[in-house]
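Private note to self, pasted from the team thread so I don't lose it. Backbone tokens:
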């Protein structure tokens, strides 16, 4: 055995690549979804899409053997909503789920798959990234629980940039910054490894290229595709690295105060980055390089300024008294290997700054 004491530290990590088909099919989602359903041998489709997504889902549904269209989609997936969707799937004897929508829609399909084992074909209409992970989330009595289960990983994803041309600009910005948060959390998540960091770094670079084009509005298919690709890389890295401090904070706040998911992530991200970066120099270097900036915090600040990003939890609807109410629960959820050890006072200061929208420090 070679003596490692006088050599560089040995590389040791375990990385699991999740089994999933991914199709980029701009302008061809209806045909692509039909082919994925046929590939999986399914004959009875339960199509999940909110009322707001009905027009986008229509052409897709027209080529599928749909036995039920289910449109009761609610943010953060309350357990009672999940139970009704599970009953609906059983009643119509569905053998596959097709979800057309953002993270809440994908999350509801996952909640059904978790108890039924039905496969999912996911068609995202935001940059949420849930479609590429085996992570589920359910909310009950103002507490959002999350976990990982191979049954909830969609078997196929169909990305069609054409479905995102009508996404309101500020929603697209917030959703894209949610994807950026997946990348940054993946640099130091509980299971982060070198492969996660490579994927996350490229995800950051692609998002930083695509999002300013998306911000300009209009049908910039190239900009949307760039952002979708970055969001996919973000989700793949996050699924492996696990939920870091940023996501632990946002899940607590979302469940407790029913805050808008993407906007909450967009607001909290620079504060967590400023908190962790000083004690994660290699991750900080990778983030800065991907953002083409002198530092990670400066690069993110410049991108957020370009995007006119959401900048306070107060504007998201969080009550000021929620700062101390949430701090203890967040502290309990801080990952043991977070780069910067956190106290309750640290969490209170971070939340207060994010609530006010003051400069991250």
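Design output:
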């Amino acid at each position: 055995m070679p003596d490692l004491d006088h050599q560089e530290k040995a590389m040791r990590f375990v990385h699991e690549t999740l089994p999933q088909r991914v199709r980029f099919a701009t302008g061809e989602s209806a045909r692509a979804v039909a082919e994925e359903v046929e590939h999986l041998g399914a004959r009875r489709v339960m199509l999940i899409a909110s009322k707001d997504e009905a027009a986008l889902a229509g052409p897709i549904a027209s080529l599928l053997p749909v036995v039920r269209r289910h449109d009761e989609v609610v943010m953060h997936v309350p357990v009672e909503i999940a139970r009704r969707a599970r009953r609906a799937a059983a009643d119509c004897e569905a053998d596959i789920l097709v979800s057309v929508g953002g993270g809440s829609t994908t999350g509801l399909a996952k909640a059904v798959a978790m108890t039924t084992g039905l496969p999912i074909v996911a068609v995202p209409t935001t940059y949420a990234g849930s479609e590429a992970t085996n992570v589920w989330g359910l909310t009950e009595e103002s507490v959002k629980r999350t976990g990982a289960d191979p049954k909830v990983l969609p078997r196929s994803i169909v990305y069609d940039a054409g479905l995102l041309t009508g996404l309101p600009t500020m929603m697209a910005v917030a959703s894209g910054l949610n994807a950026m948060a997946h990348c940054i959390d993946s640099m130091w998540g509980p299971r982060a490894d070198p492969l996660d960091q490579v994927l996350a770094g490229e995800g950051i670079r692609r998002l930083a290229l695509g999002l300013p084009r998306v911000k300009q509005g209009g049908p910039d298919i190239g900009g949307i595709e760039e952002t979708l690709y970055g969001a996919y890389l973000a989700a793949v890295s996050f699924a492996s690295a696990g939920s870091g401090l940023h996501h632990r904070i946002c899940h607590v706040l979302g469940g407790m105060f029913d805050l808008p998911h993407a906007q909450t992530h967009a607001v909290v991200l620079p504060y967590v980055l400023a908190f962790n970066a000083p004690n994660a120099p290699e991750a900080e270097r990778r983030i800065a390089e991907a953002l083409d900036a002198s530092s990670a915090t400066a690069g993110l600040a410049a991108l957020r300024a370009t995007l006119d990003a959401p900048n306070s939890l107060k504007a998201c609807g969080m009550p000021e008294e929620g700062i101390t109410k949430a701090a203890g629960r967040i502290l309990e959820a801080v990952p043991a290997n977070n780069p910067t050890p956190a106290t309750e006072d640290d969490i209170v200061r971070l939340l207060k700054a994010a609530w006010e929208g003051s400069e991250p420090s």
